[in-house]
Every structure is written in structure tokens, then in C-alpha cells.
Write a structure and sequence with these properties.
The chain contains 9 helices and 11 strands. With 226 residues, it is of the alpha+beta class. Mean pLDDT is 82; it is low at 1-7, 111-129 and 133-139.
Length: 226
């Protein structure tokens, strides 16, 4: 059994439309409608709120790989209680310095050994959101970023895959495998879980694919259930 694999050009994959808004919410454990609000903006109480991760609304039904990665990092800050009104100017500053998908290019500003604070975004950005400039590059460090880095694989400066269930998880979102859908070794989670749900023992399911272990099968089942 083969799985679809895209040729890996990580920069090009940032623009690859892979997901619906609802699928992004489910993959990242967000409340329904969250990804669309962050990417398209929203109206509430007669007031319009601009997108956080896009320059402006696009009316696109799709989420690109770059936007998915940025949503994953933004979710860390929102889980920590940082309000969107404080996150928006931080993202805008990073975009001005790094271009499109600045949060998906995190390796650019996460690898400094000696982090000297020399500059911070103004206009009420949270103290947690410190920007650091070193060797001409803009860096950002916080507990939320460190958590993001622990589950993210990088190809050069660009995020190339995300472990969806923690750093030790084999469950990946990889834009070059299975069209970015949750998978283990390129095998879709839903395919593995369906075999188990049909009554096939985990050891037999693992034997269907040489790359799978019984633990991989069990991880797939747990992720599908969650």
C-alpha cells in the first residue's frame, strides 16, 4: 500500500493549501471556529476584528501549510491566556522583518545561543513576547515558543513537520506526506484506526505495513479517538 508524497520544497509547501478550517481545529484541539477567526477575522458586538495570521481576509476555504504551522504556535500563546489584541502587533512586526509566514520560519529566530534582549515590540505587546535581534535576525523566545519548538521539525529555517500529540509522538502533520493529514510514517491515522475498529488486532495491523510497530498502531488509535 502506498501513500501520496509531495516533492519536498519546504518554501513552496508553505503556500500549499491542505486543510479546511474545521480540520485545523480538530488536528490542533481548538474550539470549533477558532482557526477561521485567527485567519479570516470576525465580527462581534457590531465590531470587526482583523485576522491575526493573515494581512487581511481572503475568503479562501483553505488553510495553507504555513498558516497551519502559525496557527499551532499561536495556539500556545492563547492557551497561556495572551489576548489576540496583544498578539496581532507582534505577528505584524515579525512579518515586516521576515516576510510571509514569519511564525512558520521559527528556526530563523529560535537558534541563538546567547539571547540578548535589545528590542521589544511596542503598542502593548505582552512581556512574554520578547523580540531579540542577533546577527541581523529577529528572535523570539518564551515558554510557549519552546513548547512549539519541541514538537516541530525544521528543514533549514522552515517548519517541515509537526508532531501532533507531543514531542515523542509518531503522529505527524507533514505537508509532503498524505497531503498533510495526520499520519505515521506516511500512513493516514484514519486508515490505521479503521483497521483496528474493524476488529483486526494491533499486531496484525502493524504487519500490514513494514514501517509500523504495534506502538505506532496504538498511538494512531489514541489520536483518532481524541
Amino acid at each position: 500500500m502506498t501513500t501520496p508524497t509531495l516533492e519536498r520544497d519546504t518554501e513552496a509547501l508553505l503556500d500549499q493549501p491542505l486543510y479546511s478550517y474545521g480540520l485545523v481545529d480538530r488536528m490542533l484541539g481548538l474550539n470549533p471556529g477558532t482557526a477561521k477567526r485567527w485567519l479570516e477575522g470576525y465580527a462581534r458586538g457590531g465590531r470587526n476584528y482583523e485576522p491575526v495570521l493573515r494581512v487581511g481576509p481572503t475568503d479562501s476555504p483553505h488553510v495553507t501549510w504555513g498558516e497551519f504551522v502559525e496557527t499551532r504556535l499561536l495556539a500556545e500563546y492563547r492557551a497561556a491566556g495572551v489576548p489576540l489584541v496583544r498578539l496581532r502587533p507582534a505577528v505584524e512586526v515579525l512579518r515586516d522583518h521576515l516576510g510571509p509566514y514569519p511564525l512558520a520560519k521559527a528556526s530563523t529566530w529560535l537558534t541563538a545561543e546567547n539571547r540578548e534582549l535589545v528590542w521589544t515590540a511596542q503598542h502593548g505587546v505582552e512581556p512574554q513576547l520578547w523580540f531579540v535581534v542577533r546577527s541581523g535576525q529577529l528572535l523570539l523566545t518564551s515558554k510557549q515558543v519552546e513548547t512549539f519548538r519541541s514538537v516541530t521539525e525544521f528543514d533549514g529555517d522552515v517548519a517541515s513537520a509537526i508532531h501532533l500529540a507531543g514531542p515523542a509522538s509518531a503522529v505527524l502533520a507533514d505537508p509532503a506526506r498524505s497531503f498533510g493529514k495526520p499520519s505515521i510514517h506516511g500512513i493516514r491515522i484514519e486508515v490505521i484506526a479503521e483497521e483496528v475498529a474493524a476488529g483486526t488486532p494491533a499486531v496484525e495491523v502493524a504487519n500490514m505495513w513494514p514501517s509500523l510497530s504495534v506502538d505506532d498502531v496504538e498511538q494512531a488509535v489514541r489520536f483518532a479517538a481524541a
